[in-house]
Write a structure and sequence with these properties.
The structure is a single chain. The protein has 3 domains: 36 residues, no CATH class; 44 residues; 66 residues, no CATH class. Helices cover 38% and strands 18% of the residues. The chain is built from 6 helices and 7 strands, in the order E-E-H-H-H-H-H-E-E-E-E-H-E. Strands 3-4-6 form a 3-stranded antiparallel β-sheet, with helices on one face. Strands 1-2 form a two-stranded antiparallel ribbon. A hairpin with a 5-residue loop joins strand 1 and strand 2. The longest helix is centred in the middle third of the chain and has 13 residues.
Length: 154
């Protein structure tokens, strides 16, 4: 038990002392001073997050809050901006590679390097039957067109 001066949480004893259940007091304080967000993660992700937070000597809550604050630091979400489609260079690449428009919604990111070729990364929920994954790597544009055609929702 602890002594408090909060009228909502008080119970009087015969001697005029004020006592309250510590758990009730902590719950009431949290309710008044913090918002709560619950979300679900795929199995195994919680432990990965806990491990990274631990390495940074942070609680999971501190770590997630820091990530969110960093994302919103400029006043708008950097993550949201990143997910708003392709930049001009990427759009030109898709057109040059002759990738049909119907596949654009499936593509998360793409790149090209002279040494390594063409890379396409599919959004979560899509898979390519040729590669068996969300990643497509080709050396020729003709391969890109052929392989992207084997992409669909999981």
């Amino acid at each position: 038990m602890c002594l408090v001066q909060d009228n909502d949480m008080m119970s009087k004893t015969g001697k005029g002392a004020v006592t309250v259940n510590r758990t009730e007091y902590k719950n009431q304080h949290a309710k008044e001073h913090y918002d709560r967000i619950n979300f679900s993660l795929p199995v195994g992700e919680k432990e990965r997050i806990r491990h990274v937070a631990s390495e940074l000597r942070m609680s999971v809550n501190e770590y997630l809050y820091a990530l969110i604050c960093d994302d919103l630091a400029s006043g708008e979400s950097k993550f949201g901006k990143k997910k708003q489609g392709f930049n001009e260079e990427q759009r030109r690449m898709l057109e040059k590679w002759h990738v049909p428009n119907k596949y654009y919604e499936m593509i998360e990111d793409l790149s090209y390097t002279k040494d390594e070729g063409y890379f396409i990364y599919l959004k979560e929920g899509f898979i390519n039957d040729v590669t068996g994954s969300r990643n497509i790597h080709c050396e020729k544009t003709s391969e890109v067109r052929r392989i992207i055609g084997k992409t669909h929702k999981k």
